[in-house]
């Protein structure tokens, strides 16, 4: 039996990309629930709501590096001040941009595990999920 991750939060302003990535995550059968937010404000609201009702926050957050409005960098600052102590988490930035400055900044950020290029390939999603399962020795589903 495969190890199971409770939930993943996908934050992506591109609805088509978000839908494709959501379906790829679901297809792995390694995740119980996939939440999608199309901007950082909705993602923060979602995280606050989960805490308010006593639920754990998502195990993994996949964050679009190029969010409009509240940026991914702003989201990371908010996350660090409001949520970082709430659970064991991993955050990956997603980028379809070859902006080397952002990729380096994202790779070096203390809250992130790294940067994944968009479009994400199914084996990359699978590798992120399997690595998380192994690092945190999740219970068998």
UniProtKB/TrEMBL annotation:
The modification 4-aspartylphosphate is found at residue 64. InterPro entries: CheY-like_superfamily, Sig_transdc_resp-reg_receiver. Residues 7-133 form the Response regulatory domain. Gene3D superfamilies: 3.40.50.2300. GO terms for biological process: phosphorelay signal transduction system. SUPFAM superfamilies: CheY-like. Keywords: Phosphoprotein. This is Response regulatory domain-containing protein. It comes from Cryomorpha ignava.
